[in-house]
Amino acid sequence: MYKSIRRSAYHLAEEGTPWAEDFRALPFPEHWHAGLLDLHNHGRDEEKRQPTLPTRRLDGVLQTLAPDVIVRPRPRIPVESGPQAAEDFWMYVPASAPAPLPGRSLRQLLDAWLRTLGPKNSAQDPRFRALLLASSAELKQNLPEWQPVTSVELLTTSTTRGGTAAPEPRQFQLATDALARRILTLDPFPFEGGELRFRALPRGPRDQGAELMSQPLCRTVKRKEWWFSVLLNISLHTTPFDPRPRVHLHWGVRRWATHPRTTTKRLNLPYREATTVYLRPTIPWLPGAPATERYALARLRRDRAADTFVWSENDTAGILRGLSLAGNFPDPEQLLTEPVSWIGEGRGVRAAVVHSTRMGKHEIGPGFMPNQRAQLTEWAEQALPEALVRVPDLARGRGKGIGAPQNRRPKPRTDEAKKAELLREAQARRVALAAQARIASHGPEQAGPTVVEARLLWQSPEVRGEAVEQFAKALGLDGDGGASAAHITDRDFDEATPGAPVVLEWRTAEITLRLRCLPLADGLGDRLVPDPAVKGRGAALAAAVADRRRALRAWLRADGADPSRPELALVEVAHRSTFRPASTDPKFAIRLGCADAGLLTQFVVTPSTDRQIDNADSLDHRTHSSWLDGLRQLGVRVLPQHTLGDDLPDALQYAAVWMVKRRKDGPTRLPKHLPVAVLVTPLPAGDGLAAVRGWDDTAGEWVPYPRFLLGLVKQAEIDPEAFTEPEAPGEDARPSPPRVTGKQWRSNLTQQRKETAAFLQRVLHSLRGQPTALITHAQNSRLHWPWLQDGQTERDLIKTGHAPAGRLDDELRLVRVRGCGGRESAQWWGLAEPGKSHGQPAGFWAQNPQQRHGDGASPGERVFYSTTERPGTHAISPALDRLATRVNAAGNLTSQAGTSAWNPTLVEIAVLGCHEDDGSAAPVRGRPDDPEALALAMHQLRQAPDYAAALSLPLPLHLAGLAQAYVLPTLADSDRTPGEESDTPSGNQSMEDPDLADAAGLSTTPDDEADTAQV
């Protein structure tokens, strides 16, 4: 068993010398000449005059033409009242680097930029032209000069009141870029059959961190050639209560699009989004500029009028169009029809188009397994400055082995033991279902077994038969539900109607179960058909959703569905690929209509042998999983039981808070989030039984989980814009609507923070008097609850609004979990003995092993880590080598490039608040808390016995995150497009993983230059 794990994370050596570098910097352009502001404010009323010049468009051009420049954003305006960050320089370059924009290059670039500063149609305004000529002449005579900025400390920071490092904004870019430049000086990374040669990638002002990318590599998989590069991301992060920031190295794979579609003979680029292309010029783009070893970045966008793709000019005025470039961009049509001829080594400009999952399948697997990840990291560590050291390895914390719960999922080995375990699990589900039904019942206690009904809404006989069989299997039911005794035929199933369904019934000692089977008739499962009389595509589709929703609700009410009595429906739907356009998929409307009738929904896809679907062989597994997921929505859960005895308070319950997206955001819509809360209370009646409830904010009470989910449907905002599809080829271009401004975004967030604070205060008040661990998620909730941010939180205090932070209630504990979002969790591997491959050990891990005393954590330790076992579906060797090419016995080159890597996330568990006896003056009532015991309980809550694989988050937080499916189903059911380097898929593949959902805490404020749009 692995005893320790290592992270690719680094901080300053304790009491070591600072890491400092010298730079040259250029101030923001409003400091150059007063006449530039006059040019920008030409034609504006006095109250609309701007104090700064817009640089966003030029920032984008610099990524292409001067990738060596480090471009800084303007200081962000705080969301709430408080000090604003001091203004920084606009551009930085290392003092030792050649000038990236010599006089001639800078003059040419600034001339093109000046033409974008005025109002629309300014070319015809003689006064503006006069100002433009005067400003251009003044700049040519007095070009801005780079200023020396010496001894910039890259990782030395101040600390917050909570003792956490508080880096300066510029350190997030300067420190990571400086380390990236050091890595570039290393010899290439060798592997069997070749070597990796890295180049730097340009980074925009809002890209926190640096990236290096290798040359494109080609591998043959399934008789086709596929291309990819190795990607190294370098980022800077903080950890609660740690006064030193950390640099993370994150390895991944970037895949290249090289296979045109057979129908169009060109790459399948998305219509509504720009596609990234990396360029490697042989000569500088700008005449007179120094040669660069960095890739350049450009984007292809669709020209709707011409129905083709063109290079994005970064703004409507076209800075690039106004430049005379030495190098030529590849012709877009040639690049998209012959992408292989532009990739790899060759003469002239080289270009590679980034692959996205929307383009289709790519046969190169993502990510690296731990052994090769460790090799790559050890190579990069050679470039570390003396002041930078690796963070200490993590050692196993308290708990035996992997830190499993008391009722961990058994692993039977013999067929007889496996059969006995399946029967035990089925009986446990019946017991739990009966218990949840009694909790949800408002009437008097029933005599005899509890009766629970479910519905099967089918469209094909194959699904109907399999669904009935798997329903019985999931709950351990004998027989066919009375179908044979009642002589029920296929014709009876086909002719069933609402109010007269085929009802199958099973009776057990614990519960009576009835399955109402109905064919999903009357077109209720067909594609949505927008009404052509409704103007606007989005509005027509929204109206179609509303119509289908009403029709399905009425159809189910005719069958006796009652919104006050939540039940489960398994619904058969066609595969999403059969609906064109995608927004006509009826799943959204079906979920809402069923919820209106009081039915929770789980879907199963119609089997098909079509090559693009090919799911006929998995029908039994998919149907079984769907029933299990549906039962979980009814609250049928097995709570992992902790092994900590008296080290946790008696009758400890678990509450979780999650921010669900209530309205789809985009360029024209403000994001809107809704806080939800789930409470899991252990029941004394059985092994792992728990009452699962959700907070009904309208009623101000905790309600059973099924009622909670159905109640959230009322919070969904059905936005017509969410249904707008990409324009079809040949459509006329429509004018772009105004974008959300930074001011609007901050005002919207301020209001949502007030609403979240009030929600938290109501929830916390309801929890008083009962020992409770409140579980939160860093990336999901910190934007709306700022106290969860590293820079604000303080040990053992809590703050929910504008009132000062105060001590926790005596019964409350506050725990924050950090998942994989934003690369905030470091990559890791289990340390193997010399000569053996590094691995992926599961376990509960603690910091500072050299300071540990006995079996406990270091004094004052509050941050711990959790890893879980690899699912059986990901039986990949930790020694997988994605890079090597070998000759097999047949004399052919082979590689493992097509195998997908899988790495569990190193989940951070921070005990932000508890009642620890730390020797302070504040007395602790009762038995003091052990922070490590609380953290271990969170680790064990990830190992729910009724799941085949461990959860990415503790069970209560997982349940809260699943509420998204009932607030805005379009988000929960949409196709995911993970980053190219992602290698941390959810262990639970049967349901959406909340830790992989878009996190509000990772969003950024819109550029304030939207406020200064051209007049």
UniProtKB/TrEMBL annotation:
Region feature Disordered, mapped onto this chain: 396-417, 724-744, 972-1015
Domain pPIWI-RE module N-terminal as annotated: residue spans: 9-436
Annotated ranges, domain Prokaryotic pPIWI-RE MID: 505-642
Biased composition annotated in UniProt, kind: Acidic residues: 1006-1015
Pfam families: MID_pPIWI_RE (PF18157), pPIWI_RE_X (PF13111), RNaseH_pPIWI_RE (PF13032)
Source taxon at top rank: Bacteria
Residue ranges annotated for the pPIWI-RE RNaseH domain, each copy included: 654-969
InterPro entries: MID_pPIWI_RE, pPIWI_RE_X, RNaseH_pPIWI_RE
Entry protein name: DUF3893 domain-containing protein
Organism per entry: Streptomyces gardneri
